[in-house]
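Fill in residues.
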């Protein structure tokens, strides 16, 4: 078989797949040729559309920060995009050749919870989102946010898992700082009003449950406004920092 381009009477071109077979007489000698031509214009259009779709998909995956994968319940992987090496230092071949199992990279303290997320998804017939640490090829610890979907075959058995994971190490590093900014005063490093109200509410609930009381102590600084007005706000800030230091030195943590 071969593909040729034919020209119609009106001058338009169309692709044809031609199959040529020999015809033989009873003695086995070639007596003629049988040509079978099939218009494959629609096939060519479908192939072109498929290639264009694949090209757009590759561009989309390449521009996403996530690393797309296809794997199995046991942690083996048979598809990763190129970003796997950027994130972990391991190449796709390390996983495809089974030299590395994805679970072997997961931090031992996070492995059970990561596997449990998949089990919960299996029980609920739902997707999963999990966060855990993995060790890169260089030995660095990386935080991963992993979201996936379990795909079932026609017989109802698990066929494979498809999903994508994202390197969230930077976010995890700043989370404690953000948490502290939300609950502690930046100048004195004492608990702010938000954290104070939370602790006070918990104390009142606990006291109500136990039948005890809560004492609230209010401390003021005499003539503090005079310090700000006469010596300036920087001096007033230093005074507040010193008072905070003394308070922390004479009460329990």
């Amino acid at each position: 078989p071969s593909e040729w381009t034919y020209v119609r009477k009106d001058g338009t071109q169309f692709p044809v797949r031609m199959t040529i077979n020999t015809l033989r007489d009873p003695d086995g000698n070639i007596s003629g040729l049988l040509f079978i031509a099939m218009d494959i214009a629609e096939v060519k259009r479908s192939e072109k559309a498929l290639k264009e779709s694949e090209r757009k998909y590759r561009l989309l995956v390449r521009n996403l920060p996530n690393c797309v994968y296809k794997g199995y319940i046991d942690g083996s992987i048979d598809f990763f995009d190129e970003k796997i090496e950027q994130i972990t230092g391991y190449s796709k071949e390390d996983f495809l050749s089974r030299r590395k199992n994805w679970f072997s990279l997961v931090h031992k303290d996070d492995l059970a919870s990561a596997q449990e997320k998949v089990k919960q998804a299996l029980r609920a017939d739902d997707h999963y989102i999990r966060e855990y640490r993995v060790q890169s090829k260089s030995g660095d610890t990386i935080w991963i946010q992993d979201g996936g979907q379990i795909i079932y075959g026609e017989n109802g058995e698990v066929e494979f898992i498809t999903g994508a994971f994202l390197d969230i190490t930077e976010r995890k590093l700043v989370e404690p700082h953000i948490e502290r900014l939300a609950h502690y005063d930046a100048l004195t490093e004492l608990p702010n009003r938000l954290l104070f109200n939370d602790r006070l509410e918990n104390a009142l609930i606990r006291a109500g449950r136990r039948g005890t009381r809560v004492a609230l102590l209010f401390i003021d600084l005499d003539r503090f406004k005079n310090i700000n007005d006469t010596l300036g706000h920087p001096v007033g800030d230093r005074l507040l920092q010193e008072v905070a230091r003394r308070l922390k030195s004479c009460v329990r943590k």
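The chain has a mean pLDDT of 86.
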